[in-house]
Specification:
The structure is a single chain. The relative contact order is 0.19. The chain folds into 2 domains: 152 residues, Nucleotidyltransferase, domain 5 (2-Layer Sandwich); 166 residues, Nucleotidyltransferase, domain 5 (2-Layer Sandwich). The longest helix is centred in the last third of the chain and has 26 residues. Strands 3-2-1-4-5 form a 5-stranded mixed sheet, with helices on both faces. Strands 8-7-6-9-10 form a 5-stranded mixed sheet, sandwiched between helices. The protein is globular and about 65 Å long. The protein contains 11 helices and 10 strands. By secondary structure, the chain is of the alpha/beta class. It is 41% helix and 19% strand. Bound molecules: 5'-O-[(R)-(carboxyoxy)(hydroxy)phosphoryl]adenosine and zinc ion (ZN).
C-alpha cells in the first residue's frame, strides 16, 4: 500500500511517501527552527502560521521525490496528537481535504506511536514484543510494546522531558535553541567527569530532570568566576552524561525486569550520539538487542506517521471527517479510547 504521511504537531512541517509500511520513498521536513530560535522556544501561534505556508509545497515535494502523484496514493496518515493543537489542525485539515477530493481513506495517528514505528523503516526490524523508550522535547517514557496499538506504560518523567532538560541547559550556557544538538556536538570534546551532576530517582522506573536543571543553575551561580569558554564542552559532557546514564540504565532494567531481549529507542533525543553509543555498548554487555532509527527518523518526520497509518489502513481503519485534533493522547490509551 502506498501511504502519504503528514506531520505538523510541533515546529516541523513534514510529508513522506512510504510503501507497505517499510519502504521510504520520500521524507521531506521543513523546519521552523530559524523563526522560533530568537524567542528561545516554539511560539505556537507562529508555528501554526508557518505550517500553513509550508504544508502544500512540502506535500508536493514529497510526492515529486517519490516519483508518484496523488492518483497513486492509496491512503493518508496524519498526526492527530499529542502536540500543539493549532499546529496539528493544519496537517489534519489538509489531510482531510485531500482524502475528500481524491476519495481516499485517511487515519489519525498518535505521534508517539509514530516515533516508535520509525524503527520499521530501518533494515533491521524488531519482532514484537519489545521495550521502547520515547525520548523527545515533550516526552520521556518507557513502554512495554506488545504490538501496534498495544502499549503498557512502565515509567515516565514526572516533570521535564529529557530534550527539554537539554534545551534549557543550552539556554543557561548561552548555546542557542534548540540546544540538544549543540550539546551533543560540544560534549564530544569534553570530559564527562568535570562536574558531578545528580542521577535522580535511581530506584524508580520514572524520571525526573528538573533537579538536574537546578543543579546546573546552582553550579553556574555558585562559582567564584564566570564559566570560561573552554569549560563549556566539559560542562555539556557532564550534564549530557547524567541524562544518558539514567535513560540507558532504566530502559535496560525495564527490559530485564520483563525478560524482553529487544529495546527500541526513538524520539528527537535518540539522535544523540552519546546516547546511541551507550545503548549499543550496554545492550551488548547485557545481551539485549538495541534498535535505534537513523537520526533523521528519530526527530520529527512524517515517514513514521505513514508507517503507523499503513498498519491501521491495512486493518480497515478509516477515520471520519469529523475527527478532531487532541493535545494530550497517552499511548497506553490507544485502542481503548
Ligand atoms: O522528537 P522531536 O523532534 O520533537 C518532539 O516531539 O519533541 O524532539 C526534539 C528534541 C529537542 O529537545 C532537541 O533538543 C532534541 O530533541 N534533540 C537532540 C538531538 N537532536 C535533537 N538532543 C540531543 N542530541 C541530539 N543530537
Ligand atoms: Zn516528536
Amino acid at each position: 500500500m502506498l501511504v502519504l504521511g503528514i506531520e505538523s504537531s510541533c515546529d516541523e512541517t513534514a510529508a513522506a511517501v512510504v510503501r507497505d509500511g517499510t519502504f521510504l520513498l520520500s521524507n521531506v521536513i521543513a523546519s521552523q527552527i530559524d523563526v522560533h530560535s530568537k524567542y528561545g522556544g516554539v511560539v505556537p501561534e507562529i508555528a501554526s502560521r508557518k505550517h500553513i505556508e509550508a504544508i502544500i509545497p512540502v506535500i508536493l515535494q514529497a510526492l515529486a521525490e517519490a516519483k508518484v502523484t496523488l492518483d497513486d496514493i492509496e491512503g493518508i496518515a496524519v498526526t492527530r496528537g499529542p502536540g500543539l493543537i493549532g499546529s496539528i489542525l493544519i496537517g489534519l485539515s489538509v489531510a482531510k481535504s485531500i482524502a475528500f477530493a481524491k476519495g481516499l481513506p485517511f487515519v489519525g495517528v498518535n505521534h508517539l506511536e509514530g516515533h516508535i514505528a520509525a524503527v520499521f523503516l530501518d533494515d533491521k526490524k524488531p519482532d514484537f514484543p519489545f521495550v521502547a523508550l520515547v525520548v523527545s522535547g515533550g516526552h520521556t517514557s518507557i513502554y512495554f510494546v506488545r504490538d501496534f496499538e498495544n502499549f503498557i506504560i512502565l515509567g515516565q518523567t514526572r516533570d521535564d522531558a529529557a530534550g527539554e532538560a537539554l534545551d534549557k541547559a543550552a539556554k543557561m550556557l548561552d548555546l542557542g535553541y534548540p540546544g540538544g544538538i549543540v550539546i551533543d556536538r560540544l560534549a564530544k570534546n569534553g570530559s564527562a567527569d568535570y562536574v558531578k551532576f545528580p542521577r535522580p530517582m535511581k530506584n524508580s522506573m520514572d524520571f525526573s530532570f528538573s533537579g538536574l536543571k537546578t543543579s546546573l543553575l546552582t553550579y553556574i551561580k555558585n562559582r567564584k568566576t564566570p564559566v570560561e569558554e573552554e569549560e563549556i564542552p566539559h560542562i555539556a559532557a557532564s550534564y549530557q552524561e547524567s541524562i544518558v546514564d539514567v535513560l540507558v540504565e532504566k530502559t535496560l532494567r525495564a527490559a530485564e525486569d520483563y525478560s524482553l531481549e529487544r529495546v527500541v529507542v526513538s524520539g528527537g533525543v535518540a539522535a544523540n550520539s552519546r546516547l546511541r553509543d551507550t545503548f549499543y555498548k550496554e545492550g551488548k554487555d547485557k545481551g539485549i538487542e538495541i534498535f535505534i532509527p537513523p537520526a533523521i527518523l528519530c526527530t520529527d518526520n512524517a515517514a513514521m506517521i505513514a508507517v503507523v497509518g499503513d498498519n491501521l489502513l491495512r486493518k480497515g481503519r478509516k477515520d471520519h471527517f469529523d475527527l478532531n485534533a487532541v493535545s494530550r493522547w497517552p499511548l497506553e490509551l490507544l485502542g481503548k479510547a
